[in-house]
Design goal:
The structure holds two protein chains of two kinds. Chain A contains 15 helices and 19 strands. By secondary structure, chain A is α+β, with helices and mostly antiparallel strands. In chain A, strands 1, 8, 9, 10, 11, 12, 13, 14, 15, 16 and 17 form an eleven-stranded mixed beta sheet that branches. A four-stranded antiparallel beta sheet of chain A has the order 4-5-7-6, with helices on one face. A two-stranded antiparallel sheet of chain A has the order 2-3. The longest helix of chain A has 18 residues. The N terminus of chain A is likely disordered. The longest helix of chain B has 36 residues. The model of chain B has no long low-confidence stretch (mean pLDDT 89). By secondary structure, chain B is mostly helical. In chain B, 77% of the residues lie in helices and 0% in strands. The chains are: A alpha+beta, B mainly alpha. Chains A and B meet through helix 6, helix 12 and helix 13 of A and helix 2, helix 3, helix 5, helix 7 and helix 12 of B.
Chain lengths: 508, 306
């Protein structure tokens, strides 16, 4: 694969490469002899891992680590295609039943075989133990039953088309984990390409190669260490000093420094994430669609992307990023302050003042962007009060509905938009957030939950068109994920979901 | 002396009870919902309520406090919301890193700070004096964040003499310890200089020199020992501060200490961890202050407690 030879991968380049990658994926892969496994890889992650339990977090950094120890049933490629992992295949039996056929010959790190019991245990555990952070996603499951040793049938109380997507985030555990969970997660085992060695809390986790891994040729290094370095400048320094080989969450202003450093390359890729500002729709004045339209017209998104994000953002053409089911290309959001003024005048708005709430230091450049927006809206006669609040306090204000605009984002984590739609555009989901309420949209979301991708696509296209006109939120841009990578790495893929996956990466 | 110590211990216990009540109440009064911080953006309200129930946060405040006090006496500070592990275990793991860093920084503070102060006082008005003053001013005025990053860039990235960050060997300790020591070291240097200057002008110093004592003995045995009482007060307070955690230095060097832990715990409303850290560091602070007060009697026999 030619990625490693490129200093950075832009959108066009990425698309070409993905196409090339797909073509290559169709060919038989050369098998890498075990003797070729060598070296040690060190990655620097932005967030400290809090737990070794894959069902007990939604942290992206923790997922990056866990994916090397635990395999999910279903994997997702960088272009959001769902591909076999521990499940060889899966199909909907009907709208509320999925059948998964499991891969044979896979073993856990202790040698016990992976089979239907593991899946039944893992899924029942996450549903029944409501203390687990991921539990709420699985509450709509009805039953999880094995069908022989290598098949599992899952039924749900409602159509659950996004189940395979959610399963990409759930590592499979051996049933023996249930005997004493506390002891198990001190030294967990999975079926993944690496085995757990040690975890120094707050500092690093060390993994070693699993020589019996089921994917041929993987892993390609003997030892993999993840260091937790939340401070970006420190993470970058460690990369530049050659201590670590890859860092995530690079911000645009650091790109030039990294590009200028010897032995360091920068990869970027449009992420499955959108930057968005939500409106408080239950409250004057922004419940008025005309005012929201005026605000949307008065914001020059391209200037923000170019000047503040230094080009590391992509213009939005849909509430859902490209690649995901349901994405459809809609007319661009234009910058037209004159029209905005006209709408405001016609609607009789003079002296509008709105509160724009930020979660302090949550998104890179958010304060500068908000200040720019305040100036832009000032041009059309809307006064913006910026409230930069500590995160928990800001979220309380959002629950209470005491804001007009709120700086937010959404990473479409399981590469499926159902979660996003269900959360923000159903009455129940948005109750403590935006108070969005449109029965037609609600109906489309419910109808879009079936497994049939064609039905889902059609429902989502219709509902996105409604949202595009209603502007219940301002979509600023799709975020670009930026990684700093040592030029000694081969086969590194800059992931759109911010995962740092190194199972197939080798070091020169 | 014994009655004094007993009285001080009682006072300390009262202080700690006060701290625990304050921390407990403040955490629960400020806005912010632990379950909401733990669950991802977009978890349904029912999941938030369920998790808060699981965390025991639906009970009335006095019931929560009662349960907390009961379990503290059993050595159980509760389960960390974030880590899903005993809070005391989470904190003590980090405490070790903090203690290492604090002791290394203290060593530099005392070693370099006191030496600089002595030299500046003895060679008053010379180049040594000015140089040490400049160092002291720099140490007090350079922000830790900036100093840390500069040290990393110079010794880690450019020269590659020392690791940039992390918590592995004594080599990893050097840069963070120097960064953390910069401020107290400067403070100690200036304080040593001024109190040495005062002492060096006293009659007993002239007497010492007149009776033919070596200059070394005059300075170290007579002058420094007398200058040490105010120094000890400051050092006692400083070590308390250092042990409370050095958030900025820990962040810059990715040092897994208690300071960063507690700041994150406050952000995420991880009540058990915040309570444990604060009660633990309050205890350390109280104990160290008591020790310092008792040390006065050793250094200056004129001081007596009754």
């Amino acid at each position: 694969m030619p990625e490693h030879a490129l200093p950075s991968v832009g959108r066009r380049r990425f698309l070409t490469l993905s196409a090339a990658g797909l073509a290559v994926a169709g060919l038989p892969r050369p098998s890498h002899a075990q003797a070729r496994r060598s070296g040690e890889l060190v990655a620097g992650l932005s967030e400290r891992m809090l737990t070794l339990d894959p069902a007990n977090h939604y942290s992206i950094s923790s997922t990056s680590v866990h994916r090397h120890m635990f395999d999910p049933l279903v994997d997702v490629t960088n272009d959001s295609k769902f591909v076999p992992a521990l499940a060889e295949s899966w199909r909907p039996v009907n709208n509320t039943t999925w059948r998964f056929t499991l891969r044979k010959g896979v073993t856990f790190h202790d040698g016990t075989p992976f089979n239907a019991d593991s899946v039944v245990f893992t899924l029942r555990r996450v549903k029944e133990n409501t203390k687990l952070i991921k539990s709420f996603v699985y509450q709509d499951l009805d039953s999880v039953e094995k069908d022989g040793d290598h098949a599992v049938v899952v039924t749900s109380k409602r159509p659950f088309g996004s189940l395979p997507a959610h399963l990409t985030m759930l590592g499979m555990l051996p049933p023996s984990a249930g005997k004493n969970e506390e002891a198990f997660f001190q030294k967990p085992i999975g079926t993944g390409p690496f085995r757990f060695v040690s975890w120094t809390h707050g500092d690093n986790i060390v993994l070693s190669a699993n020589p019996r891994y089921w994917k041929p040729g993987q892993p390609r290094v003997e030892k993999l260490t993840f260091r937790f370095i939340p401070e970006l400048s420190t993470r970058a320094a460690a990369l530049r000093a050659g201590e670590i080989h890859v860092i995530d969450r690079v911000t645009p202003d650091l790109v030039e420094t990294l590009k200028g450093s010897r032995g360091v390359k920068v990869f970027d890729v449009p992420a499955v994430e959108a930057q968005r500002w939500i409106f408080q729709l239950g409250k004057e004045p922004v419940k008025d669609q005309r005012l929201r339209q005026a605000i949307s017209l008065a914001v020059d998104r391209n200037v923000i992307i170019k000047e503040l994000l230094l080009g590391y953002g992509r213009p939005v053409d849909s509430p859902v990023p490209p690649g995901l089911i349901g994405h459809t290309s809609l007319p661009p959001k234009v910058y037209d302050p004159e029209k905005a003024k006209q709408i405001l005048k016609q609607a009789g708005y003079t002296n509008v003042s709105i509160d724009f709430v930020l979660m302090k230091d949550f998104y890179p450049k958010q304060l500068e962007i908000t200040q720019a927006v305040a100036a832009m809206l000032g041009e059309v006669g809307i006064k913006v009060n910026i409230k930069n609040l500590e995160i928990a306090t800001a979220r309380e204000q959002r629950s209470a509905g005491t804001y007009d605009m709120f700086y937010s984002g959404w990473a479409h984590m399981p590469h499926d938009p159902d979660w996003y739609f269900g959360q923000w555009f159903t009455k129940a989901g948005s109750e403590k957030l935006t108070r969005y309420n449109n029965p037609r949209v609600e109906q489309l979301i419910a109808e879009g939950r079936v497994p049939d991708p064609k039905v889902r696509q059609a429902k989502y296209e219709e509902l996105e068109r409604i949202l595009w006109d209603e502007e219940p939120e301002i979509w600023l841009c799709y975020t670009v994920a930026i990684y700093g990578v040592s030029d000694r790495l081969r086969n590194f893929e800059a992931r759109r979901d911010y995962y740092v996956l190194l199972g197939d990466v080798s070091i020169a | 002396m014994r009655t004094y110590v007993v009285r001080r211990l009682w006072q300390s216990a009262l202080t700690l009870v006060g701290v625990s009540v304050l921390v407990f109440v403040i955490l629960r009064v400020v806005p912010g919902d632990p379950a909401k911080m733990l669950l991802p953006e977009g978890a349904p309200q029912s999941a938030i309520e369920e998790l808060n129930r699981q965390l025991g946060l639906q009970e009335p405040l006095y019931v929560q406090y009662g349960l907390f006090v009961q379990s503290v006496f059993r050595g159980d500070f509760g389960q960390s919301f974030q880590y899903r592990a005993p809070a005391l275990q989470v904190v003590t793991e980090r405490l070790m890193a903090t203690v290492q860093l604090a002791l290394a920084a203290m060593l530099i503070t005392v070693g370099v700070g006191v030496s600089l102060g002595i030299v500046a006082a003895v060679r008053r008005g010379t180049g040594y004096d000015y140089a040490s003053t400049v160092l002291a001013v720099l140490g007090q005025s350079l922000p830790n964040f900036w100093l840390g990053i500069m040290l990393i860039l110079l010794f880690g990235v450019a020269l590659r003499w020392l690791p940039t960050s992390g918590f592995e060997s004594w080599r990893h300790l050097i840069l963070p310890a120097v960064t953390l020591a910069a401020f107290p070291m400067a403070l100690v240097a200036r304080l040593t200089r001024s109190s040495m200057l005062e002492i060096l002008g006293r009659d007993f110093i002239r007497t010492g020199r007149a009776k033919g004592l070596a200059e070394r003995a005059v300075i170290l045995r007579h002058a420094l020992r007398n200058a040490a009482v105010p120094l000890l007060t400051v050092l006692g307070l400083q070590i308390g501060t250092l042990l409370g955690g050095a958030v900025i230095t820990e962040s810059v060097f990715a040092w897994p200490g208690m300071g960063k832990l507690v700041v994150d715990a406050i952000f995420f409303r991880d009540f058990p961890v915040v309570q444990t850290v604060l009660i633990l560091s309050a205890t350390l602070f109280v104990v160290i202050n008591l020790l310092v007060d008792l040390l006065y009697t050793v250094i200056d026999p004129r001081i007596r407690y009754s």
